[in-house]
Specification:
It holds the Pfam family Cyclase. This protein is α/β, with parallel strands linked by helices. Helix content is about 15%, strand content about 25%. The chain has a single domain, classed as Putative cyclase (Glucose Oxidase, domain 1, 3-Layer(bba) Sandwich), CATH 3.50.30. The longest helix is centred in the first third of the chain and has 13 residues.
C-alpha cells in the first residue's frame, strides 16, 4: 500500500471515530492543590469598554486543571527530557488502556493484581502503551466549596503497581484524581517511580467512563522551557 493510501485510510478512520474530551474546564474556583497557584481569568480588553478586540489574562500554575507532570516535577536531575518542553512527543500520542478501578475505596491504592486481572480479560499491556485509571473521582469535581471532596481522601496507585508499569515500559499513566499517589501519602512513591523512569503522569482527567478498554490517546502539553508540567487538552479517539 502506498503512503498516500495509508494516509487516506488513517484519515478516514479518524473521521468515522468519536472524539472524547477528557479535560476539565478551566474556570475560577475549580479544585486546586492547596500549595499550587489558583486559577484566574481577568478581562483586559472588551467591546463594552470600546476596545476593538476581547482578551483575558490567565493566571495559573503548571499543574492547574487537567495537566501533565514532567520528570522535573519530582526528579531534580535527569537527561534532556527532564522538563516539559523537551519530552518525547511520541510518548504522548498512541494506544491507551483504560482500567476501571472505581470500586477502590477512599485513601486506598490500586494493587498490581488489578492490572494483571485486567490484562487477563483484555490483553497484555505493551511497551510504549499509555494506561488510564478510572477511579470515578471526577464525580466530585466542582467549583467553590462544592469541590472540597475532590481534594480530600482520593485513592491512588500503589508503589508496586507503578513499578509493574515502568517494568512494562509504559509511556504515560493518567488518572481522574488530583494526583496519581493516594491523598494521604506524602512520600509520593508513584510519582518518584513513574517520573524517575520517564513515564509521564496526567492528572485531573474526566469522562474516562466513556472509553472502551483501548483507545487512541492524545495528551499534548504547552512547550514551557524549564517547565515541571503543563495544562493539557486531553482527548481520546474511539473507534
Amino acid at each position: 500500500m502506498s503512503d498516500d493510501n495509508k494516509l487516506s485510510n488513517a484519515l478516514s478512520a479518524l473521521v468515522d471515530s468519536e472524539v472524547v474530551d477528557l479535560s476539565q474546564t478551566l474556570e475560577e474556583g475549580m479544585p486546586v492543590v492547596p500549595t499550587h497557584a489558583r486559577y484566574g481569568h481577568t478581562l483586559y480588553e472588551s467591546y463594552e469598554q470600546g476596545d476593538v478586540a476581547c482578551h483575558y489574562r490567565l493566571t495559573l500554575g503548571e499543574h492547574t486543571g487537567t495537566h501533565m507532570d514532567a520528570p522535573l516535577h519530582f526528579i531534580a536531575e535527569g537527561d534532556a527530557h527532564n522538563d516539559i518542553a523537551s519530552i518525547d512527543l511520541d510518548s504522548l500520542i498512541g494506544r491507551a488502556a483504560t482500567i476501571d478501578v472505581a470500586d477502590i475505596e477512599r485513601n486506598a491504592t490500586v494493587p498490581v493484581e488489578r492490572i494483571e486481572q485486567w490484562e487477563t480479560k483484555h490483553g497484555d499491556l505493551r511497551e510504549d502503551d499509555r494506561v488510564l485509571f478510572r477511579f470515578g473521582w471526577d464525580r466530585h469535581w466542582a467549583t467553590g466549596s462544592d469541590g472540597t471532596q475532590y481534594m480530600a481522601d482520593w485513592p491512588g496507585l500503589s508503589e508496586k503497581a507503578a513499578e509493574y508499569l515502568t517494568d512494562t515500559g509504559i509511556a504515560l499513566v493518567g488518572c481522574d484524581t488530583a494526583a496519581i499517589d493516594v491523598a494521604h501519602d506524602e512520600s509520593f512513591p508513584a510519582h518518584y517511580e513513574l517520573l524517575g523512569n520517564e513515564t509521564y503522569i496526567v492528572e485531573n482527567l474526566t469522562s474516562l467512563d466513556e472509553l472502551p478498554p483501548f483507545s487512541l490517546l492524545v495528551t499534548l502539553p504547552l512547550k514551557i522551557e524549564d517547565g515541571s508540567g503543563s495544562p493539557i487538552r486531553a482527548v481520546a479517539i474511539v473507534d
